[in-house]
Amino acid sequence: MSAVSWRPVGRAVVNALLTFAIVLSLWWAVVNLTGMSPYVAKGPAQVWEFLVAGEDAAANRADLTPLLVRTLQDAALGFVVGMGVAGVLAVTFSLSRTVEAGVMPLALLLRAIPLVSIAPVIILITGRGTQASVAVIGSIVVLFPALASILFGLDRASGQSLDLVHVYGGTRLTAMRKVNVPGALPSLFAAARVSVPGAVTGALLAEWLSTGTGIGGSIVKFTASARFDDLWASVALITIVTLLLYNLVQVIENVVLSRMAMTTAQR
Questions:
Q1: For residue 122, which of 141, 106, 108 has the smallest C-alpha distance?
Q2: Which of 4, 72, 185, 245 shows the smallest number of beta carbons within 10 Å?
Q3: Where are the alpha helices (DSSP H) in 1-56?
Q4: What is the pTM of this model?
Q5: What is the secondary structure of 111-131 as a DSSP string?
Q6: What is the rounded CA–CA span in Å between residue 95 and residue 92?
Q7: Contact 50, 42 (CB under 8 A)
Q8: pLDDT tens digits along 23-56
Q9: SS3 call for 217
Q10: What letter would DSSP give residue 260?
């Protein structure tokens, strides 16, 4: 990798470390400065002891790791489905404004309804405890921000480049493939970054309301049984992994756009 490519990676790493430090500081402040009971509230030191330094740390990690893996699998499902549907809809809307005018109001109406209120209907249709319910709930969280971002990127294509394709006899699909889609890469990566925490949120919601598995399903159990160490540790794990995934997407984005000379021009 060239020196030019390492520079955006370094920026992403610095941003990740800064974000992590801010999260830890806020966590410490909430636990120690709000008067919460130490029996309920666990700070970074207590979670570190529980997961890393304590005598039972290995057993605690073994208990929480399958929950984390399950949640990440559910989040990946929602992310892939949501991003895929958003990409297809964005391209379709860009090719046909008639379709956009007919479908977009329905999408905005669905977006305006709180997901928690329609989740029972989704679960009733797809079945409780099924992966279909996880896919639908997770993809809804991802879909709308990704759709707006990708559609915005497709609409920002260079008019001169589009005219050049048409002059040489290219069709609208050719212009979409050679001009619109490559030019929308910054918006596509921005949609992916936003969708990573959205997919995790959707997975936790689906696990809480439908499957009862993963971290989302276990948080309620931990609270009911006063297992507050497990509760705070599971929240810390999913938060850290989400931050890592977000910054991983940012690193890939910076490298790809830097190699394509799009960093300065479109970001």
A1: 141
A2: 4
A3: 3-33, 44-48
A4: 0.86
A5: HHS-HHHHHHHHHHHH-TT-H
A6: 5
A7: yes
A8: 889 988 888 888 788 888 888 989 999 998 888 8
A9: helix
A10: T
